Amino acid sequence: MTSLRYTEVMNASVPAGTEDIPVLDYSLFREELITMLGREQFHCLNYFCHRIPEGLRFMCCIADDETGTIRILCHEKKDGGTSLRSLSDSCTAMHIFEREIHERYGLGFEGHPWLKPVRYPHDRADRRNVISTYPFYEMESEVLHEVGVGPVHAGVIEPGHFRFICNGEKVLHLEIQLGYQHRGIERLFTEAGENGLRRSLLAESIAGDTATGHGLAHAQLSESLAGFIPPPSLEIERCIALEMERIGIHIGDTAALCADVAYQLGQVACEALRTLIINTTQFWCGNRFGKGLIRPGGSDYPLTEKIADEILRVLGEVERRYVNVTDCVYTLPSVLGRFEETGTVSRQQALSAGAVGMAARSCGLVRDIRASHPFQYYRQMEIKPALQTKGDVMARGRLRVMEVRESAGIIRKLVEVWKNGEKNTGRPVYDLRFMPESLAVSVTEGWRGEICHVALTDADGRLVDYRIKDPSLHNWMALALAVRNQEISDFPLCNKSFNLSYCGNDL
Amino acid sequence: MIKEIRILADHRIQYIADLRNQVLSERFRGRPVISAEITSSQAEAAATMCPTAAIDGESGSIDLGRCTFCNACAFMFPGVFRFSADYRIAASERSGLIVKPGQTGWSGFNGLAVRPVIRRLFRRALKLRQVSAGGDNSCEMELHAAGNVNFDMGRYGIEFVASPRHADGIVITGPVSENMADALEMTYRAVPSPRLIILCGTDAISGGLFAGSPAVKRDFIEKHHIDLYVPGNPAHPLTFITGIMDMLGI
């Protein structure tokens, strides 16, 4: 009977017909999800709800890491009731999705331990709730004190508010309040509708530091809804771009980690190395962040022999020098003293927070969409995710070194295949016709972790809903857990070691 | 110690000596060049296609305050629109960001429009407080890079400071989200007078892709005098630094 409880799709492949997705009773929907999510091979890619004429429709996309499939479960709420039984008390990782639904549609979730605002979206259920009235957790005590930081921070970074409850120098609890960056981007996607160029530009601005990761999630989602199969050369080019983005950011993050412990040599050397990588991306497509490189249906900047050779040349130089620098950084006692056993997240904590990507892989939890739900040319490759187990700042730093080397290897392989293969990347297609009554799921592994875009079309093939999940949505909770019982002075270091997105969370 | 020496030897000297005369890679999209021979039908077609309404449908001029530098107009009419690698495109007035057909070189920066007090007080040291208000973190990262070993704006005494109380002005990125509007106002008020405002990136200048979104609230931008406009998606560090140098008269 279980086969009737959900529809299965593959990542960025043939979409599901919305009419074919079985509609479950809420009790069955909940039971099915709790059973699945109780097993480690399953995790939730996205769970959201939207209005239908009779009430609300809930869609949940569950990734099965062992079979590489994505299960779609559906529930329709037509009784007009104001609450549902929560999933979060059985499966903590679902907390953030239920909070989002609560905030946007005013629906209560009985038994939810932490039903707080996520991002104060413009279309929230209760406009009287504003960002300055966020209900912070409080502790009554004579000895404890609170420290509030933000939304405007000391550095040149995005805004968010951090509220610490401290005992002396020690952090007992950190609550992270976001939403300052909310731009209403999901709605702009549906308004852009058939204008693929505008959607592509929006995708690159979901999180500008992940223009390739989000750009690709959008491009392959559009192609999946249109039944367009990209040629291998295009797939290869996209994977190269994605790995370049990963390398550039990881090296920049290494610089930032060095800066936070006042190790200037490591900082300036890595900043200069990042510049070499992103200037190569600029050489390829005219933009240091890869904006303009990923488009649905084709590319404005197909790879050429000259660009491929330049990428290989820079990669060789950067990898050699980065290995030298990091060999120095990660053996220096004054650095190790700050990195080791600072901001530790256990594997169990990562699992219950629903951590993805680097945040998960740094504490022994293998979550890598390139391996579990391969997309583009990764389907033809064997990706073995780099892994660290200790879950501290050191592990997150070391993981970056491993991933830079791994990505460099992947790019070399891809360039070799590209050189020997047929080069038939076409021009972008901005007016792809979407299949009617469909739901498509597209997941990519950006440098932070899994990025999931979901789109729904109506009977005429028009976009009716576009949902975006940045990995930061899960990982902010991992950061909050990491700083417990740490000195508050280590917060910047812990924060940098995750380097999460504010705008990706706030949308 | 040997390891460190090896790193320094590899690193060599990286800083760019002359920030005004760098040759960026050919594909970098900076100052647009529009053919004087553009026809009205081409202008109209490009304007209809432009995703942020940056192109004027009658004249074919481009407003860099709205342009996302996506290059779609140049792909549509290759002989008519072209984005050159000239990165010196900051302007002292909003109207200076409009590039007309047939225009060569950059005329957006009008030194006379700069408030005299700015050059008098900040020419040798300018401390800025950055406020991201819905920015996508690409402009923020470029502003951060403006201080790194390559671009090193610190050599002119230009730097970002942690507190608005220590700052001479603010640099705004992002379209100004409604949720950030109050914090932006408070940060600005915390800067001692005389204070300046710099808008960095297309999103900040016009709202860019987010213009008209119900989650954006641009009252602050509309009611204040803006001292410098730095276009780009994101603005290149060289555009930012040379723009400030022009403003300060360096």
Q: What do these coordinates show?
A:
The complex is a heterodimer of chains A (507) and B (250). In chain A, 41% of the residues lie in helices and 17% in strands. With 507 residues, chain A is of the alpha+beta class. Chain A has helices spanning 26-37, 95-105, 185-192, 196-206, 211-226, 232-260, 264-285, 305-329, 333-339, 347-353, 357-361, 369-372, 393-420, 472-482, 491-498, 502-506; strands at 7-10, 16-17, 23-24, 42-52, 55-64, 69-77, 83-85, 108-110, 145-149, 161-167, 170-177, 438-445, 450-457, 463-469. Chain A is built from 16 helices and 14 strands. In chain A, strands 1, 3, 4, 5 and 6 form a 5-stranded mixed β-sheet that branches. Chain A has a 4-stranded antiparallel β-sheet with strand order 2-12-13-14. A 3-stranded antiparallel β-sheet of chain A has the order 9-10-11. The mean pLDDT of chain A is 95. The radius of gyration of chain A is 22 Å and the shape is globular. In chain A, helix 6 (232-260) packs antiparallel against helix 7 (264-285). Chain B has 250 residues and is of the alpha/beta class. Chain B has 9 helices and 9 strands. In chain B, helix 6 links the parallel strand 7 and strand 8. Chain B starts with a helix and ends with a helix. Chain B has a domain at 112-248: Rossmann fold (3-Layer(aba) Sandwich), CATH 3.40.50. The radius of gyration of chain B is 19 Å and the shape is globular. In chain B, the strands form 3 sheets. Chain B has a 5-stranded parallel β-sheet with strand order 6-5-7-8-9, with helices on both faces. The chains are: A alpha+beta (507), B alpha/beta (250).
